[in-house]
Amino acid sequence: MTVKQISVFLENKPGQLKEFAKLLDDNQINMHAMSLADAEDFGILRIIVDDSYKTACVLKDEGYVFSITKVLAVEIPDRPGSLVKVLDILGQNGVNLEYTYAFITRKVDLAYMIFRVPDNEKAIEVLSKNGIKLICQDALSDLFAD
């Protein structure tokens, strides 16, 4: 019950993100979620896309340095306190959260969080046991279908 996240290293200079986004656009790849963290000389762009295999092929052909990581996509009601509930469940069960970012879809009243944790299986078990819905790769693509 994980989704594939692609982390791409980009030079920290003007226009790099635009070039990257254009590359995806030119190859008909849709970004569903994105997070960009900066360092002194480079940025780490984390993306969830509609076709991770195609994206990896394009990035390899273009010489990008990237990695693919399995992360959790968690469905959360879009109202105050919902994230706190999920974080409390994880914390009470000793699941550390390395980083997180959010994305939205056309579904009303729902938000989605990407969680990177050291132990996906433990986090999946804990969240599922507590009634928290996780989204798999195929279901994620369905969220963005017209």
UniProtKB/TrEMBL annotation:
Domain of life: Bacteria
InterPro entries in the cross-refs: ACT-like_dom_sf, ACT_dom, ACT_dom_pair
Listed Gene3D superfamilies: VC0802-like
Listed Pfam families: ACT_8 (PF19571)
Chain ranges of the ACT domain: 71-146
Stated name of the protein: Uncharacterized conserved protein, contains tandem ACT domains
Natural source organism: Lactonifactor longoviformis DSM 17459
